[in-house]
User: What shape does this take?
Amino acid sequence: MIAEVLATGDEIRSGALIDTNSAYISEKIEELGIKITRHNCVGDDEKELISILLELAERADIIIVTGGLGPTLDDLSREAAAQAAGVPLKLDTKALKKIERFFVSKQKSMPESNIRQARFPKGATILENPIGTAPGFSLIIGRGTFFFLPGVPTEMRKMLSEQVVPRIRQKLKEPYYYKTENISTFGLGESALEEKLREFPILFPDIKLGFRAGFPEVQIKLYQKNSDEAALVKEQEEATNWIKEKLGHKIVSLTGQPMAAVVGDLLLQQSATLAVAESCTGGLIADWLTDRPGSSDYFLLSAVTYANAAKQEVLGVEPTLLEKWGAVHEETAKAMATGVKKLGNATYAIATTGIAGPAGGSLEKPVGTVCIALAGPAKVESRRYFFPFGKRRLNKKIFAAQALNLLRLELLRELKKNHNR
Amino acid sequence: MIAEVLATGDEIRSGALIDTNSAYISEKIEELGIKITRHNCVGDDEKELISILLELAERADIIIVTGGLGPTLDDLSREAAAQAAGVPLKLDTKALKKIERFFVSKQKSMPESNIRQARFPKGATILENPIGTAPGFSLIIGRGTFFFLPGVPTEMRKMLSEQVVPRIRQKLKEPYYYKTENISTFGLGESALEEKLREFPILFPDIKLGFRAGFPEVQIKLYQKNSDEAALVKEQEEATNWIKEKLGHKIVSLTGQPMAAVVGDLLLQQSATLAVAESCTGGLIADWLTDRPGSSDYFLLSAVTYANAAKQEVLGVEPTLLEKWGAVHEETAKAMATGVKKLGNATYAIATTGIAGPAGGSLEKPVGTVCIALAGPAKVESRRYFFPFGKRRLNKKIFAAQALNLLRLELLRELKKNHNR
Assistant: This one.
């Protein structure tokens, strides 16, 4: 079975907007065991659109098209599909009523132009859009079954999983079961992970292994299809356990959760609270932590003390200490962590002070140097690290992730200790 | 002249990696006055690659291909190009020497496999890669001139501008001059901007106008080509002035700089410093501010006081005030701004407290409500806003941008006052 994707729209064609839909669709369709052969993109040009639809109708069995379903005149997918299939457009009164109801629910009146969204090629199956005005549709042209979806990613994703994936599953001859696992890791690059897991394809030949680098974390993705559901679950479990053994604490989570959310869970589990003191990470640790809903249950404060005076005033770092060691030093980081822990009356505190660059580096403390302190109920520890990534934004990210990772490992040790008691 | 792009590689085809190269190339080529008609993508499959190269050789005049130039066996662009052109591969000793020198400069020995990178289709022009091992090449197949570039974005971008763009310019019949302008705006959506500037295409028919939404800022892009350089500069200036008049302070910068950098410039200009108190924005304002190198010259601290106790302890917000008004209130925001301004001994302070969601909303203060206070040398002001974006991350961003925007407008007023004195 040959499958392709087609993104439409001048914004994507001209480069004003990056096409994220095609990657998303490819991943989801590949999870069904179907390989996407090509991505295609054309602009809002009726001739070009019809021409590529006809090519696809000859070349592929399943085609997923995004974009061109809006109410304006440059939304051409419905017209182009009808012309490529050689059928007229027909008003669907049921779809029109739904669009009208959508506007009523938003207490707005429907503009005349939205009527266009209820006209579909004759013979098309309408695909409902539960969160927007643009319904999609599916239509057979030549050898291809086409699924036309909106370009707005949230609408496209919902309709892909609810309307398209079940229909493609029905087309597959044997009933298959699918399982995907996302494992987030920190501390090893993609090639180092590949090296550590190099026996995987021999041990688990039925499971596809993929890596996705999302600096500074790397996601490992496992997926598998099998006609025997019990065998599938068992093999996936064995594979996950094997990876757990190989990677140990490099694994941040088995559910794909990012570092800050995992740290949040561990803090919640132990009814612990956290205070942060940030210099070089400039608020990024706090930003990551507070992206998680409910983070106010454990995250108390971050003192982003960029100026030395603020380190003294807010955190109580001694001026003599700053004079003796400078802002970037293990002792300064310790004093920052101790200071913010006391200030927030928190169970744990982390502190960062370093050189994100591009300026401020020296031979002794080059750009990429960071001192991180971790203060817990019983002790405070501090270490210096050097990261070779060079760029300011990358440095902020790796510093922040490393600080959260130290806390994560400490919380895991604590958890183990309590279990063993 | 018909131009297309082709991205190659299994990572992009399978969706593991999002293709940003095609959008970048499309923008750069469109700046030359050449419209990219289609984007294409295939995986690391020799048959598929040859087949699409032959299609492109019939359909397009200029084709820019990315990826497949690495040293491993799944890097197939050189082989596929040779086969599509019907020519053999030839070792280029000059290119091989350069690759060897690259490894010497990194104090490594060259792996055997890298020899592959010095074999090119007979008749190809080699395109130098100044920052990586993979040289590119250009080759004529059918009606098409193909440019093969590496997939690594930094290498591709450098080679596109240094090696490809000058060669395409030579192909254009008349010598043209080009000018691009990026204007960042805040406070109006894309359609509202389009509406405000609807007379633009009539007044400046030679300038192409584009919009790029990068929530919460929207970039306006102007570009133009002209055989007369003086006329080009003059018209672009007139167009920019016209837009300035239409949009006024909705324009954040005429150079595409983001809000936090513009605020930084204004603070520097006035030798002023800034302290921030963040509740609902959770460190995002500080993170944005500190992404700019040299921000330590004006940014002193941000107190990310998520817990009420931290608002009291760190910022000195009165418990009675919190009891009376709650955490999300104009008076609380005022007390936070006043507190952090005093703590940091800063010229200006901004404070945010609101409900980012998904939980915590009420009828009176729904998710999307934020109170922002601005404290300056003479006064402190506070206002409540409601934003209808719903999602937590979007709320954090719009709250942070709105707070920085209030400061930007105040700094502009101050600048004007000083000029008038």
Observations:
- Residues 392-420 of chain A form the longest helix (29 residues).
- Chain A touches chain B through 72 residues (CB under 8 Å).
- Chain A is about 40% helix and 25% strand.
